[in-house]
């Protein structure tokens, strides 16, 4: 099965809902908020600035464009109607935020209509990242800011010892849910191709904390997918999910992944 995030609108509604729950859990974790703060807080857009998040999911990262980057208004575009409905409902009381169904490769917005564009864990899911970067270049005003952050997915792990079976679920899940594991190792070269001027590049370590809410969604989805594909029996899948929860209860659970952010400017 190919990466469901690359064509979320085509997935069954219950799958879109499950992914939306996982996205929401991830967005709200303090360690994830700290990553977004670390690369967005220094941007300081000028008054009246308009920002766009491509691949806005449940909308929490779009909201960061206001509070962290200083945008006056922000639009999130996203192909999944389930995600757009959730974001619209969640932020219905904030007139500075709006959400629409759209494709980052072909948004339909006018040339040079945004001061900033954000792609937070979008590009790893897009089979044609060059088309997204070309669209971002078209939409940004001269001097506009492009902020990209994504996982460095080969670093994702739940391993606490050699041949730890929980780690296999994480690796399986990442391989089945990410189109390009290496996007942040390639991004500077791609941005260069499109004439962007490179700004700060930062690495961010994410370690699951407390109840490991988001990482447990990774474990559970990995176990369920292995069961669906006939690799694991249902009892083994259930036992591995329980093992993850037992580790959380005993404070022996470890979940880790690096993220990388890259700021760039349209000259
Ligand atoms: C991992 S989620 C990230 C959502 C949000 N940025 C966040 O961090 O919570 C990736 C999102 O990108 C969306 N997406 C995938 N391909 C897209 C495209 N071509 N244009 C716009 N969004 C896309 C998916 O539907 C999904 O909601």
Radius of gyration: 18 Å
Residue fraction in strands: 15-25%
What is the topology, as strand order, of the major beta sheet? 3-2-1-4-5-7-6
What is the CATH class? Alpha Beta
| Number of E-state strands | 7
Q: What is the third-level CATH name, the topology?
A: Rossmann fold
Largest sheet: 7 strands, mixed
Mean pLDDT: 96
The CATH superfamily is known as Vaccinia Virus protein VP39
Q: Give the topology string: H per helix, E per strand.
A: HHEHEHEEHEHHEHHE
| Global structural class | alpha/beta
With helices defined by DSSP (H or I, 4 residues minimum), what is the helix count? 9
End-to-end distance, in Å? 40 Å
Bound molecules: S-adenosylmethionine
Helical proportion?
Answer: 40-55%
Low-confidence stretches: none
CA-based shape: globular
Could you say how many structural domains there are in total? 1
Please specify the SSE layout and strand pairing:
Blueprint: H1 13-28, H2 30-40, E1 50-54, H3 60-67, E2 73-78, H4 81-90, E3 97-101, E4 114-120, H5 129-139, E5 140-157, H6 165-177, H7 183-193, E6 197-207, H8 213-228, H9 234-249, E7 256-265
Parallel strand pairs: 1-2, 1-4, 2-3, 4-5
Antiparallel strand pairs: 5-7, 6-7
Helix pairs in contact: 1-8, 6-8, 8-9
The structure holds S-adenosylmethionine.
How would you describe what is shown here?
- The chain is an alpha/beta fold and 267 residues long.
- It has one domain: Vaccinia Virus protein VP39 (Rossmann fold), CATH 3.40.50.
- It has nine helices and seven strands, in the order ααβαβαββαβααβααβ.
- It has helices at 13-28, 30-40, 60-67, 81-90, 129-139, 165-177, 183-193, 213-228, 234-249, and strands at residues 50-54, 73-78, 97-101, 114-120, 140-157, 197-207, 256-265.
- The protein has a seven-stranded mixed sheet with strand order 3-2-1-4-5-7-6, with helices on both faces.
- Strand 4 (114-120), helix 5 and strand 5 form a beta-alpha-beta unit.
- The longest helix has 16 residues, at 13-28.
- The protein is globular, with a radius of gyration of 18 Å.
- The termini are far apart.
- Bound molecules: S-adenosylmethionine.
């Amino acid at each position: 099965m190919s990466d469901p995030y690359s064509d979320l609108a085509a997935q069954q509604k219950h799958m879109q809902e499950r992914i939306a729950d996982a996205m929401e859990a991830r967005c709200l974790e303090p360690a994830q908020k700290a990553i977004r703060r670390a690369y967005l807080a220094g941007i300081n857009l000028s008054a009246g600035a308009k920002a766009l998040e491509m691949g806005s999911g449940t909308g929490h990262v779009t909201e960061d464009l206001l509070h962290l980057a200083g945008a006056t208004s922000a639009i999130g575009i996203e192909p999944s109607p389930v995600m757009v409905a959730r974001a619209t409902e969640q932020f219905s009381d904030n007139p500075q935020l709006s959400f629409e169904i759209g494709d980052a490769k072909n948004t339909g917005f006018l040339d040079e209509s945004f001061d900033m564009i954000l792609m937070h864990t979008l590009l790893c899911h897009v089979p044609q990242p060059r088309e997204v970067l070309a669209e971002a270049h078209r939409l940004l005003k001269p001097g506009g800011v492009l902020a990209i952050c994504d996982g460095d997915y080969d670093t994702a792990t739940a391993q606490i010892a050699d041949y730890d079976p929980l780690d296999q679920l994480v690796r399986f899940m990442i391989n089945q849910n990410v189109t390009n594991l290496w996007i942040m190792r390639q991004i500077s070269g791609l941005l260069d191709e499109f004439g962007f001027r490179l700004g700060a590049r930062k690495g961010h370590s994410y370690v699951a904390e407390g109840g490991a809410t988001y990482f447990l969604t990774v474990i559970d989805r990995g176990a369920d997918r292995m069961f669906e594909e006939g690799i694991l029996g249902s009892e083994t899948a259930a036992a591995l999910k329980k093992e993850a929860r037992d580790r959380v209860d005993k404070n022996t659970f470890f979940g880790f992944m690096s993220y990388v952010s890259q700021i760039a400017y349209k000259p």
